[in-house]
């Protein structure tokens, strides 16, 4: 019996390809070529499944040109590269990788917060440039994390992980805003208090963004929001590019509207706004919040298990449009 054909659109752990090869004819991309939309369509011809990352946009035009496609398994928890409505309309199942990256990503959010507040990369660059000649009372003096107010915009699994780290580990006063308020028991477990968005902006010494990207959250932080923050505040974005207006943020950082920013995601990444690159009071990392080896393995395995689960057993593990299964 011929095996169903699947495409693995980006390079991945070899053992994950081996696992997929037990069930499928696998077309891999271990050279990690980032295909144009047209090349992706060509690669998907005759494929029933696709293992995707955030680089592959799955929209109505692609779906119309790939009639054999039944499932796209994203190796990410975020899925803004999917037009979920178009996928559902085309009967194509979508899956993502929730839970397996929660703690690693929360760790990274905290790492970026600490690096930004305590000016770690800026001071390292100074030292490496052989500019350090003596101690000075205010040299790279940043802002305190312990005991300060941590604001979290978007209180899903990762936001809750960050809240616990702040409340339990750093004695922080944690406030959050979310589309829907958490139940009282979850709020208590996170040590977090629900506030309105204006209250969150005004109260936060450190504001962490962890909300999903959507038309609704596009530029959730722009010039107007930055103007409501404390001049001593730091802003950390580990969510998605486009949630922050990067040009407005660069202007605010330059003007001293807020003190500093830590950014793991960018509008139009991997390009980074040139104004951000020119600033010292911003810590920049290349979308690596989930990048520990164990977590990246777990994400890749979950995406592969979703392909096997659906195409072989009819039951994916983490579907985003599960009503297709009942249809
Ligand atoms: C995700 O899974 O959405 C993360 O952004 C990956 O790092």
UniProtKB/TrEMBL annotation:
Residues 6-321 form the D-isomer specific 2-hydroxyacid dehydrogenase catalytic domain. GO terms for cellular component: cytosol. SUPFAM superfamilies: Formate/glycerate dehydrogenase catalytic domain-like, NAD(P)-binding Rossmann-fold domains. Gene3D superfamilies: NAD(P)-binding Rossmann-like Domain. Keywords: NAD, Oxidoreductase. The keyword Lipoprotein does not apply. GO terms for molecular function: glyoxylate reductase (NADPH) activity; hydroxypyruvate reductase [NAD(P)H] activity; NAD binding. Transmembrane segments: none annotated. Residues 110-289 form the D-isomer specific 2-hydroxyacid dehydrogenase NAD-binding domain. InterPro entries: D-isomer_2-hydroxyacid_DH, D-isomer_2_OHA_DH_cat_dom, D-isomer_DH_CS1, D-isomer_DH_NAD-bd, NAD(P)-bd_dom_sf. PANTHER family: 2-HYDROXYACID DEHYDROGENASE-RELATED, GLYOXYLATE_HYDROXYPYRUVATE REDUCTASE B. Belongs to the D-isomer specific 2-hydroxyacid dehydrogenase family. This is D-glycerate dehydrogenase.
């Amino acid at each position: 019996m011929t095996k169903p054909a699947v495409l693995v659109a980006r390079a991945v752990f070899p053992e994950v390809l081996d696992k997929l090869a037990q069930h499928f004819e696998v077309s891999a991309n271990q050279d990690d070529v980032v295909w144009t939309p047209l090349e992706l369509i060509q690669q998907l011809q005759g494929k029933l499944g696709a293992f995707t990352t955030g680089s592959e946009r799955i929209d109505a035009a692609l779906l119309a040109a790939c009639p054999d496609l039944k499932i796209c398994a994203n190796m990410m928890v975020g899925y803004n590269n999917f037009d979920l409505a178009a996928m559902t309309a085309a009967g194509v199942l979508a899956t993502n990788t929730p839970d397996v990256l929660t703690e690693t990503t929360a760790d990274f959010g905290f790492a970026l917060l600490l690096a930004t507040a305590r000016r770690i990369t800026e001071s390292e660059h100074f030292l490496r440039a052989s500019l350090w000649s003596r101690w000075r009372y205010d040299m790279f003096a940043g802002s305190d994390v312990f005991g300060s107010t941590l604001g979290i915009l978007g209180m899903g699994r990762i936001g809750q992980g960050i809240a616990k780290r702040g409340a339990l580990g750093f004695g922080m006063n944690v406030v959050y805003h979310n589309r829907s308020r958490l139940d009282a028991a979850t709020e208590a477990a996170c040590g977090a208090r629900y506030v309105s968005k204006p209250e969150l902006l005004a109260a936060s010494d450190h504001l962490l963004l962890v909300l999903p990207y959507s038309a609704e959250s596009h530029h959730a932080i722009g010039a107007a929001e930055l103007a409501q923050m404390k001049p001593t505040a730091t802003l950390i974005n580990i969510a998605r590019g486009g949630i922050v207006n990067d040009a407005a943020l660069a202007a605010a950082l330059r003007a001293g509207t807020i003190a500093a920013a830590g950014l793991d995601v960018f509008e139009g990444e991997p390009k980074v706004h040139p104004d951000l690159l020119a600033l010292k009071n911003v810590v920049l990392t290349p979308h690596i919040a989930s990048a520990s080896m164990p977590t990246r393995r777990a994400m890749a395995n979950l995406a592969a298990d979703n392909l096997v689960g659906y195409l072989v057993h009819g039951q994916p593990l983490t579907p985003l449009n599960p009503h297709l299964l009942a249809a």
